[in-house]
Amino acid sequence: CGLxxxxxxxAGKETGVRMARYYYEARNKKGRAVTGEMSxxxxxxxxxxxxxxGKYLIDARDMQESRSYHQLSPLMLSEFxxxxxDMLGAGVPLVRCLTILSQEETRKKKDREIxxxxxxxxxxxxxxxxxxxxxxGAFPALMIHMYRAAENGxxxxxxxxxxxxxxxxxxxxxxxxxxxxxxxxxLAVMSVLMVIFIMSFILPQLSELFDNMSQLPLPTRIxxxxxxxxxxxxxxxxxxxxxxxxxxxxxxxxxxVRRKRDEWKLKIPVAGKLLSVIYTxxxxxxxxxxxRSGLPIVNAMQIARRTIGNSYIEGQFDEVISLLKEGHCxxxxxxxxxxxxxxxxxxxxxxEESGDMAVMLDSLADAFDYESEMATGRLISxxxxxxxICMAVIIGFIMIAVMMPIYDSYSAIGTSxxx
Length: 419
Prior knowledge:
By secondary structure, the chain is mainly alpha-helical. 71% of the residues lie in helices and 5% in strands. The protein is elongated, with a radius of gyration of 28 Å.
């Protein structure tokens, strides 16, 4: 652990972590609504601070990021960093680099506006990291802090190339996941639209035919009962659905509810394991990038926690950081986190002993990226036939419910003619 402790630099080194200014809504012990502003590293820390004051956090908004109208995509960040690295490596001054990048016509208008804002701030004497931080949350904290460390070390070009590779891999992972779930989404939407079409247009045309029958089979009665209920209370059902969706969205803005939801995600069969792999790969790659840039390990952990995308896992980092400050090894501290793959602490332990922490973390992230791709493929291979079977069952039930009374009527006609 000597290498980790040597790079930790606790005394006064946590100033590199961004203290966000939050506007919060809470309730006090008497149940009264209170609002205010408070500085904190994360929503979790804000929650704990308010709890010590006897307040229960309801909602919180980062006052800087809440004013952001646009966040740069991983693909855009990868291209920006690669081009910046190439130009800096060729000896082009930073202001000239930013001028070229901000005027590139192939970029979206909002992206160009953000880069122009960075250029103006740099021309006024601001450091590149500070100029990025002023862009209302457009640039991720990971990128800002890595550039801040590079400015102190004088290696902007190398940092830009590492960031380019980092966001390129993040973009590839996001693209693979989105591409894998596209077909199941289309299938699910088509199933719902088909059922709505049958219930709304086909069945009402058959109702007159079935009204003359004295007794309808049970599946037919169930089907027409559902159809009549939807036809009579359709607007009300739609209103209730919208209210429920809005209610869930509001509930998930409460940190405690969001943490419970994210914890539940990790317990979903098959999908939970896949999400755990993705979170571990994301954290490993972020920590590796920050560690390579020379940030103290505590600062790196504070920043890397914000790139995971799961509030339940992020909430456990306070204990981990406390253990690091007490002198524990990183591998021992990370082993306490529930939600990461156990392989993470083992790889970090090997990196501590060998002195190649960043290399080991990169290798782990690559391995987990591949594992997540395979796991996503397996999940979709299960999901697609399941959706097809569900659609077949629904359509089959509708067909049986429609055909049974017709078949019974023909049988009755045939019997009466026979006699």
